[in-house]
Amino acid sequence: MPTTQFDKESIKQSIIGKLQRYNGRTLEDATDQQIYNAVASTVRDQIMQKWVKYRETDKDYTGKRLYYLSVEFLTGRSLHCNILNLCSTQEYLEALNELGLDWHRIFREEPEPGLGNGGLGRLAACFLDSLSSLSMPAMGCTIRYEYGLFRQRILGGQQVEVPDSWLDNGNVWEVSAMEDVCVVHFGGHVEMVNEDDRIKFVLKGYHSIEAVPYDMPVAGYGCDTVNTLRTWRARAPKNVDETNYMGGSYSRALQEQELASMISKVLYPEDNNYEGKQLRLKQHYFFTSATLQYALKDFKRRFGTNFMLIPEKMTIHINDTHPGLAIPEFMRLLMDEEGLGWDEASWIVQHTIAYTNHTVMSEALEKWPEQMMAELLPRIYMILQEINRRVCLRLADHYQNGEDPRIAKMAITAYGMVHMANLCVAMSYSVNGVSQLHGEILKNDTFKDYYEFMPAKFTAITNGITHRRWLMACNTGLRNLICDTIGDQWIREPERLQDLLPYRDDAAFRAEFAKIKRHNKELFSDMLMQRQKMSVDPDFMFDVQAKRLHEYKRQLLNALHIMVLYNRIMDDPNFTMVPRVFIFGAKASPAYYLAKQIIRLIIAISKLIDRTPRAKKFLRVVFMENYDVSGAESLIPAADLSEQLSTAGKEASGTGNMKFMMNGAVTMGTMDGANVEIYEQVGQDNIYIFGMRADTVSDLYREGGYAPMHIYENNAELRHALTQIIDGTLFPDNPATLQDIYHYLLFSDPYFVLKDFGSYSMAQRRVDQDYRLQDKWLRMAITNTACSGVFSSDRTIKEYNDRIWHLK
Ligand code: 26V
To answer: Which tens digits make up the pLDDT trace of 278-293?
Structure first.
């Protein structure tokens, strides 16, 4: 292993030494947090050694580099995964043991950087881990939000948001890179000046913000590569406003500082929803501009001013449209700063930028008012208009008709708005979807006209998850069992998990597998006790739906089904079922009223069951507070059933589905996103598929929806459950509390909850029957783990590289 090994003794010395030097404490009287810091900075020392070496070799590197731009990187905690990737688990485990320290307790001290909302941000983090582990040179670039995603509390049965100031105790993993501080301009106006017989555009009267980079090392597993996650922080430039101090406006100078730092203050808590907030536009331009300035500076250091070489030497990958201003910003830098002409600049950009789409939800597609863009970024707006003019000319030519209605749909600026997705599709060399089904929907629907116009750039690459965090680190029991059974080759080649398949028939293996699952349930129950003073019975089946709360993800389907089960228990004295605990984890965007009502509903159902002794024997509902990466790492290994209920065609891929599968949960899902591919991997006997297919759903939308009342009238069980939402069963004191949900389902139901209910309920009956046959169930669970190798993000990254990036 080419890693720098820190042996057990030097680890122990380092921890004790650090406590002494930095805290003036001995091990005995140090706090858990101080101990965490000492352990983490020991690991950091080890990574730094590698980082220095890697950077040294990287200086002479003349190949291609990837910049992965994402407004979110949901990394989760670093300590455990860093130790794992350094291949030093054994050494640290022994060292901590000998010092009498509890390893899990120390890990828990690390604040979790919540720099993301959900799937898109977590994917970016998995990608970085795989890029490093596959030794591909890459830099992740994002914003250093002072406040990550809000922390969720449940008070009075409702979600309450609390700020997440994750940096309060410092961040062991980051170092500032002052040599790369740069300036980003906002506002002002553009003047044309004539210089050397050329027209130049110069921005005047602008407002400057400084971008300060903080770098976090991303060490690959068992290799020398240490890539960088660069996070940009905003601050007011020191020198520019000295005039303020001289004029005695000290407080104004402080105000400027305050205003500037707003840009990197807080992560917007919106997921699959878009609001045209000016501050968000500032955030996007801020980190995109800073990143491109740095990328260009690095290019010039390596290759001078031979700019036509750029597409050969770097790829700028934009994770959804949020960093899409990279397109006009790159053009601006090449034209205004480096003196290139439009055609050259545009050629370079169109061969350097690659774009991934992550959602087909129309409310999530980014559009900015032209007015806002023109005021905030006047030069960028000019360039956007010119891009638009040229694209529309090409389209008019292509359609042989300047009035063709498709042109307005494909335009970059139209009806007073800038359409970011159109910009990204028109100007990047690659456009990809995140699952096979999603890729098809992009081609046939979302970007249909563009696909017909420029088909070659469209592709689909199915998402993945890093099996290092999502199996090796979070489920050590299962990792050890797998290694003991099939060796450790699967760690480098996760597809080899397939070698587990024959062990489905081995009773001893099944028993071990079951033992681990049960142990994980106990661990989860302990964690829940610690986090929210609740416990769950590990003898119950764990049925889990954990993801952001959204109508299209249909937590309502699950909630209604629980009510139906409750009624069966209460109405029939002879009814029995496998005891099940339904566990939900979900944050709702603070302004998303219906989503918050759904949380209320789930908690109300949970309370109803808890006060009904007969129901409690078979049913429990647990709402896990503040579901985050660490919560997921504890919950997923404990799950038996994974609920993936999105309306077919709406979930671009899903990645939680892959994490559950890898940890031996069986999926209950629609034929949506990557569920389709999970189905193809495990076969129909090892998954529960229900509901309408994507084509049926889109036919229904075309027909203008359906009449949910019809289903209400024909399904007595469902009718009963729906009525209970408003008849005082849940809220005796105020039966109307959730009437909006009731009306929504009965008179609108845009995501077909009632329509798919019957099919869902039938599939759930089969789950109950199958779970009683423990051997059958275990075979299914093992099959899921064994077939999960293709969902490693290592496979995903290799595909991106083969088809899009072409790094070495
Ligand atoms: C939209 C916006 C709009 C304005 C700027 C901030 C912001 C942040 C997030 C979003 C929605 C992001 C879309 C998203 O997270 N999509 C998810 O991406 C996953 C990774 O590809 C995929 O597995 C999920 O199916 C998809 O919902």
So the answer is: 999 999 999 999 999 9
Contact 425, 447 (CB under 8 A): yes
Cβ atoms of 476 and 83 within 8 Å: the answer is no
pLDDT confidence tier of residue 2, bands split at 50, 70 and 90 = very low
Residue with tokens 């009449």: 707
Q: Give every CB contact of residue 218 below 8 A, 6+ residues apart in sequence.
A: 128, 129, 131, 132, 140, 226, 227, 228, 229
Q: Are 778 and 513 in contact (CB under 8 A)?
A: yes
Other residues' Cβ atoms within 10 Å of the Cβ of residue 151: 19
Q: Do residues 662 and 655 lie in contact, with contact meaning Cβ atoms separated by under 8 Å?
A: no
Structure confidence at residue 198 (pLDDT) = 87
Residues with CB under 6 A from ligand 1: 71, 117-120, 123, 268, 270-272, 274, 280, 320, 322, 358-359, 364, 366, 434, 463, 651-655, 673
- Distance between Cα 358 and ligand 1 center (Å): 5
pLDDT band at 240 (very low <50, low <70, confident <90, very high): low
For residue 1, pLDDT beyond 80: no
Q: Take atom 16 of ligand 1 and give the residue whose Cα is closest.
A: 358
HEC string of 134-155 equals: CCCCEEEEEECCCECCCEEEEE
Span 238-243, average pLDDT: 58
pLDDT at 791 over 70: yes
39, 18 contact by CB (below 8 A) = no
Please list the active-site residues. Answer: 358, 547-548, 553, 655, 659
731: phi then psi, degrees, rounded to nearest 5? -125, 80
**Position 523: which residue type?**
L
Q: CA nearest 146: which of 235, 227, 219, 252?
A: 235
If one counts every other C-beta atom within 10 angstroms of the C-beta of residue 521, the result is 22
Residue 591's pLDDT is 95
How crowded is residue 335: how many other Cβ atoms within 10 Å of its Cβ?
19
Which of 143, 285, 359 to mutate for ligand 1's pocket (most ligand atoms within 8 Å of CB)?
359
